Amino acid sequence: MQDVAVCIPAKDEADRIAATVKAAQELPGADLVVVIDDGSSDGTGRVAREAGARVVRHSRNRGKGAAMESGAEAVRLLDEGREQPRHLLFLDADLAETARDAAPLVEPVRSGEADMTIAVFSTTVKLGGHGFVVRLSRDGIRRATGWEATAPLNGQRCLTRAAFDAALPLAAGFGVETALTIDLLRAGFRVTEVEVPLAHRATGTDWRSQLHRARQFRDVARALAVREPAVAGGLERLRGSRP
């Protein structure tokens, strides 16, 4: 059954994107791989196209949430005429050969057991100490929904088209995973985590890595700020008091 579209947001991943695309093409039921080149300067889009992917290019970096939306919209256009829309499997660009092991994420969605699956990596990678961002996301999801996430920031996710559309517009930047989980759970969709043997590039400890974590913290905090019950209620009251 050819019912899965793999969407791969990518920025400056020319060294790994070909391996990731080729591995994704091996996934059972995946007949479409879309790479969203989010303003790369290293030829990521060209390499992805040569590897067999459809490529959507942003002329400037717009962030992960926007890249996911662009990829899903490309799939929607290619789904025209199909009886059923494809499921959407989002994978990171740096998974390389391990992307072929993402199949367990699809099965619960395909069988109707879940509306969204989230990967929990069985292969432990030292991520350079960004646990404080994970805790921020996990605690926020628990407060907002009561659900305890093991890997709240993991970007490897499979969704039905209906679930994805229900979450639009997606949160900006690196807040997208946290917001997506909260929004779908609050809307009554079924979310489950699945252990998979995937692995990607570890985050380092140099200044660029520290800057990445700071941006991640900022985006997750912003996504939570508008979804926390107390904050959201306050915003609604403010809107209601406007003339």
From TrEMBL:
Belongs to the glycosyltransferase 2 family. One of its GO terms (molecular function) is glycosyltransferase activity. Its EC number is 2.4.1.266. The lineage of its organism: Bacteria, Bacillati, Actinomycetota, Actinomycetes, Streptosporangiales. CDD domains: DPM_DPG-synthase_like. It catalyses: (2R)-3-phosphoglycerate + UDP-alpha-D-glucose = (2R)-2-O-(alpha-D-glucopyranosyl)-3-phospho-glycerate + UDP + H(+); an NDP-alpha-D-glucose + (2R)-3-phosphoglycerate = (2R)-2-O-(alpha-D-glucopyranosyl)-3-phospho-glycerate + a ribonucleoside 5'-diphosphate + H(+). This is Glucosyl-3-phosphoglycerate synthase. Its cofactor is Mn(2+); Mg(2+). Keywords: Glycosyltransferase, Magnesium, Transferase. The keyword Magnesium applies. Pfam families: Glycos_transf_2 (PF00535). It comes from Actinomadura coerulea. Residues 6-121 form the Glycosyltransferase 2-like domain.
